């Protein structure tokens, strides 16, 4: 198999574990040197007595301090820059719900490496320069736009910067330009399919689509399968985050058996979020990432708050970069209802197994008569809102299946297709209207 992408050092893709370890050690030392230019890190290293030469293996990363999103906010906007601002050519920012947003700086080399990473991923899933790549993702501060744009161009594909939303225009582009690949958030692709159906467009017959890159938001294996079955197109999970660059950090190969996280660019750790100690492979914990190549803003042991686990360190595709499971969710997305911990993805997983249901859903938490409740509204795939017997039995079965999964009985409401809000970017799945008692 032609597994190495011809993008910046293709040999890195098939390194042995031993070679990865060696490369990471030297790149971690370089990163620490760069971090010494950042007062925030220089101070911490001094307090902890850390010197670059003390790093003898990637495991020595455990001697280093963690970095949190709060650290990025506290040093807003440019406090973590390791180079003069005059050496930076771009910034991206992700808006927080509270306080300062976070700002990520890039040098030209950072942008080049980022484009190479994305190009490597797109090559890995079988795309080639003669493909037509439509990027149906928000442009601007959100990294899914420019990140995929530059990566797809780097590979040499004809790239259509369609941006998010406006499904009729998306469909016209797909047909007129012969689009073969799309990048979008998964919740948007299910919406796009519904509009295709309304327009009488059959993606199997009327389009050349063959590859999707889906990511930027948690989604279940069941949702991925649903998208693949709807369009007859392979959908590959793409993981990224602005703090690490954007998309390109981890991507599934054609085996679809977890995300290859690129260890020539990052050191990947999974830690227990309470004790911050490493967890064994296979056990769920918080993903912690250290950049190995970033010039403008290297980050050490960045706590992503994403929860996942290591699946393995080899793959039939020939790549030995660590394989990471699809994200279970973010620790801050976890719903705690009546003392029970629930991730929205658990609910999605169940909804997707009912063919009578469409893909859009909304979870609302509310306080009624001093009791906290969860209401799950989900759109019906077809219009049978007048068939009360069928609605009743579907509601009953769905409530039971959800209870088995989340151990609480939610209020289930089946609503007509197209009646729940659709966001252009990442889907909003949970609205919390609970009263907070103090
Ligand atoms: P942002 O920096 O705004 O692009 O957001 C990054 C966050 O999006 C990550 O920390 C994850 O929580 C989420 N995310 C990105 N890609 C995926 C994915 N493939 N699966 C699940 N969550 C994802
Ligand atoms: Zn693989």
Number of domains: 2
The spatial strand order of the largest sheet comes to 4-3-5-6-7-8-9-14-13
Report the average pLDDT across residues.
Answer: 94
Q: Briefly, what CATH class of the largest domain?
A: Alpha Beta
Which CATH architecture of the largest domain? 3-Layer(aba) Sandwich
Unique ligands:
adenosine monophosphate, zinc ion
CATH superfamily of the largest domain: ANL, N-terminal domain
| Main pleated-sheet profile | 9 strands, mixed
Helix content: 25-40%
End-to-end Cα distance: 61 Å
Shape: globular
Describe the structure.
This protein has 438 residues and is an alpha/beta fold. It folds into two domains: 1-332, ANL, N-terminal domain (Rossmann fold, 3-Layer(aba) Sandwich), CATH 3.40.50.12780; 335-437, ANL, C-terminal domain (GMP Synthetase, Chain A, domain 3, 2-Layer Sandwich), CATH 3.30.300. The chain contains eleven helices and 21 strands. The protein has helices at 17-35, 39-48, 69-74, 108-124, 143-155, 167-177, 186-198, 203-206, 221-231, 344-351, 388-406, and strands spanning 88-94, 102-107, 132-135, 158-160, 181-184, 211-215, 234-241, 246-252, 259-261, 266-271, 285-291, 302-308, 310-312, 323-324, 329-330, 335-337, 340-342, 357-368, 371-380, 411-415, 430-433. It has a nine-stranded mixed sheet, sandwiched between helices. A four-stranded antiparallel sheet has the order 10-11-12-15. A four-stranded mixed sheet has the order 20-19-18-21. Strand 3 (132-135), helix 5 (143-155) and strand 4 (158-160) form a beta-alpha-beta unit. The chain binds adenosine monophosphate and zinc ion (ZN). Adenosine monophosphate is lined by residues 94, 143, 215-218, 237-242, 304, 306, 327, 330.
């Amino acid at each position: 198999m032609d597994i190495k992408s011809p993008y910046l050092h293709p040999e890195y893709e098939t390194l042995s574990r031993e070679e990865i370890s060696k490369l990471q050690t030297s790149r971690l030392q370089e990163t620490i040197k760069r971090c010494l230019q950042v007062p925030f890190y220089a101070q911490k290293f001094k307090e902890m007595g850390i010197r670059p030469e003390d790093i003898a293996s990637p495991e020595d990363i455990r001697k280093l301090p963690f970095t949190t999103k709060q650290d990025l906010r506290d040093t807003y906007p440019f406090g973590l820059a390791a180079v003069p601002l005059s050496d930076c050519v771009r910034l991206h920012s992700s808006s927080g719900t509270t306080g300062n947003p976070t700002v990520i700086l890039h040098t030209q080399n950072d942008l080049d490496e980022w484009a190479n990473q994305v190009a490597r991923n797109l090559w890995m899933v079988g795309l080639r320069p003669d493909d037509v790549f439509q990027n149906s993702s928000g442009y601007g501060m959100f990294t899914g736009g420019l990140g995929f744009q530059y990566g797809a161009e780097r590979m040499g594909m004809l790239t259509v910067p369609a941006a998010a939303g406006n499904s009729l225009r998306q469909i016209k582009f797909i047909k007129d330009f012969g689009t073969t690949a799309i990048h979008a958030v998964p919740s948007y692709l299910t919406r796009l399919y519904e509009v295709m159906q309304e327009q009488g467009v059959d993606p199997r017959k009327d389009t050349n689509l063959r590859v999707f890159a889906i990511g930027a938001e948690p989604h279940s294996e069941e949702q991925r399968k649903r998208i693949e079955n709807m369009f007859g197109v392979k959908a590959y999970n793409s993981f990224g985050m602005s703090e690490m660059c954007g998309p390109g950090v981890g991507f599934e190969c054609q085996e679809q058996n977890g995300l290859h996280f690129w260890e020539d660019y990052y050191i990947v750790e999974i830690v227990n979020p309470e004790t911050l100690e490493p967890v064994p492979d296979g056990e769920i914990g918080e993903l912690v990432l250290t950049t190995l190549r970033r010039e403008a803003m290297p980050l050490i042991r960045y706590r992503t708050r994403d929860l996942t686990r290591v699946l393995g360190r080899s793959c039939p595709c020939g790549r030995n970069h660590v394989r990471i499971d699809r994200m279970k969710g973010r620790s801050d997305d976890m719903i705690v209802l009546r003392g029970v911990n629930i991730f929205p993805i658990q609910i999605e997983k169940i909804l997707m197994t009912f063919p009578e249901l469409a893909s859009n859903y909304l979870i609302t938490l509310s306080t009624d008569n001093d009791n906290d409740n969860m209401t799950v509204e989900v759109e019906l795939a077809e219009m049978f809102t007048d068939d009360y017997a069928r609605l009743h039995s579907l509601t009953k079965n769905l409530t039971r299946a959800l209870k088995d999964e989340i151990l609480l009985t939610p209020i289930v409401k089946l609503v007509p297709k197209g009646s729940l809000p659709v966001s252009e970017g990442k889907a909003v799945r949970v609205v919390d209207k609970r009263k907070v008692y103090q």
